[in-house]
């Protein structure tokens, strides 16, 4: 019994040594990578009200242009998600689409590009604006390069609807269908794409003023693997 404390003390010293080695290793990792890894392993996720799936606002996704994933222990699916997110960011920046009108996020199934409808379409219509075509060309390049399926989710504001669209449902559905048709006409197989209308049922903001309602008007391009079943993508 008199020697039992020695075993406990040895365990304590070993643990402290491992702790200080960990601190030393982390001190050598770039700040951007360290922040991304911290968020990645913490499991923190924010829930986007446009979907019941967890959407990660992880710095690891946000800093894709600064992080080299080649030496990180991540699986091929995660690696492909980061590559897709990086390409989306590069394409959007090259096309000069307003960064405050777009957002890129990812979950365990795929990568999502969110674009404000005011950038994509003329008010209350399905007529493309020039920047909307830039976004579509970026989406088209990605679908041609990767074997991905695409879910187009339309979200509209009820106050925006006007004839021939009598409701947010009809407007959001028409916009989603228009986007899918455009990509199909450019050679993407229709079997790789689906469109869904949410109307104003899944707002990002409460919609109590013009600014928040503007944010709620959006289109989401959700890129996912072919093997994922429909119920995993349409929420």
Highlighted features:
elongated; 8 helices; 44% helix; 7 strands; two-stranded antiparallel sheet; 235 residues
Structure characterization notes:
The strands form two sheets. The chain has a five-stranded mixed beta sheet with strand order 3-4-7-5-6. A two-stranded antiparallel sheet has the order 1-2. It is 44% helix and 15% strand. It has eight helices and seven strands. It folds into two domains: 1-44; 45-232, 60s Ribosomal Protein L30, Chain: A (2-Layer Sandwich). The model is unreliable at 43-61 and 63-67 (pLDDT under 50). It has helices at residues 4-27, 31-42, 59-62, 76-94, 117-120, 130-145, 168-185, 210-216, and strands spanning 46-47, 54-55, 102-106, 110-116, 149-155, 193-197, 218-224. α4 (76-94) runs antiparallel to α6 (130-145). The N and C termini lie far apart (61 Å). By secondary structure, it is α+β, with helices and mostly antiparallel strands. β3 and β4 form a beta hairpin.
Strand tally is 7
Q: H/E order of the elements? A: HHEEHHEEHHEHEHE
What is the mean pLDDT? 77
Number of helices: 8
How large is the radius of gyration? 22 Å
Structural shape: elongated
Which stretches of 5+ consecutive residues score pLDDT under 50? 43-61, 63-67
| Structural domains: how many | 2
Could you name the CATH homologous superfamily of the largest domain? OmpA-like domain
Under CATH, the topology of the largest domain can be stated as 60s Ribosomal Protein L30, Chain: A
Oligomer designation: single chain
- Widest sheet, order of strands: 3-4-7-5-6
Strand content: 5-15%
CATH class call of the largest domain: Alpha Beta
Name of the CATH architecture of the largest domain: 2-Layer Sandwich
Q: In this structure, how is the largest beta sheet organized?
A: 5 strands, mixed
The helix fraction, in percent, is: 40-55%
């Amino acid at each position: 019994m008199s020697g039992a404390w020695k075993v406990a003390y040895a365990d304590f010293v070993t643990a402290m040594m491992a702790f200080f080695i960990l601190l030393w290793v982390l001190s050598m990792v770039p700040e951007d990578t360290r922040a991304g890894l911290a968020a990645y392993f913490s499991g923190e996720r924010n829930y986007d009200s446009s979907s019941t799936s967890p959407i990660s606002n992880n710095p690891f996704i946000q800093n894709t242009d600064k992080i080299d994933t080649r030496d990180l222990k991540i699986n091929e699916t995660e690696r492909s998600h980061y590559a897709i997110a990086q390409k989306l960011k590069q394409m959007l920046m090259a096309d000069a689409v307003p960064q405050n009108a777009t957002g890129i996020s990812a979950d365990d199934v795929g990568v999502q590009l969110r674009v404000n409808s005011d950038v994509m379409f003329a008010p209350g219509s399905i007529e493309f604006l020039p920047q909307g075509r830039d976004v579509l060309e970026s989406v088209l390049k990605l679908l041609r390069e990767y074997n991905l399926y695409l879910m187009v989710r339309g979200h509209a504001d009820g106050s925006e609807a006007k004839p021939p669209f009598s409701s947010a449902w009809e407007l959001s559905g028409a916009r989603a269908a228009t986007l899918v048709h455009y990509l199909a006409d450019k050679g993407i197989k229709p079997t790789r794409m689906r469109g869904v209308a949410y109307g104003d049922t899944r707002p990002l903001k409460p919609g109590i003023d013009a600014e928040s309602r503007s944010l709620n008007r959006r289109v989401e391009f959700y890129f996912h693997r072919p093997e994922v079943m429909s119920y995993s993508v349409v929420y």
